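ok trying again, last paste got cut off:
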Amino acid sequence: MKKTVFILACAAFMFGSCATEFNRVYKSSDYDYKYEFAKQCFAAGKYNHAITLLQELVTIQKGTDNAQECLYMLAMAEYCNRDYESASEVFKKYYTSYPKGVYAEQASFYVGQSLYQSTPEPRLDQTPTLGAINAYQQFLDFYPDSKNRALAQKNLFELQDKLVEKEYLSARLYYNLGGYFGNCLGGGSNYEACIITAQNALKTYPYTSFRESFAVLIMKSKFELAQQSVEEKRLDRYRDAEDECYGFLNEYPESKEKATAEKYIAKCKQITKD
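nice, full thing came through this time. structure:
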């Protein structure tokens, strides 16, 4: 018990000493010393202290030999502190200010990396994901031989999959809404919206791992659309659904939805023969 109290007391003393030293440095007008202290804070993982000092020093160091290092260190401190939005902005600022600078390649990579870390789940707005993809593509265009190329490509493909999943969730939602017309005040139907969303996704991402899942939604939606069609559109839509089922079986002969496709074909033939 006494040992624990002693350790806690020492820790409190050290913390108080560090806080006192930081406050003294923060108020100092010796910018060279302040910069060296900021570097020590960064190296020790005290990113909040480093950020506080570097935000002031970035302007003061501008035009000096330390300017590039100061700005890049601020960006890395923000990144290590998991403030990815701020980090991406500072990395962009570095890359814009010093396109041929010492840290230009790393800054370009970390713009994408920062945005990658803050991308939302697929159900949410994917604007940050698009930003990260663009940043990685720009990095790969300018630094094709970078040591970070493999990681950038891996993350880029992962982000593209997230966009595809977003489209799949949208298409599936339309399918699940089915005959609910409250969502179709402008005309059309949820099944038509599902088909269009899925087809557009396949055109944009032809090699996606969601390809069969999109094909299933298209096939099912075309059949359901035929089921609820008015008389003048009924036969054409059943024929279209039948063709879609045959195309699905040709592309995915071992699919778990094979029986569904065969059932739809039999139903379509029965309707179109009558």
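cool. Residues 22 and 266 are 79 Å apart (CA to CA). The longest helix spans residues 149-177.
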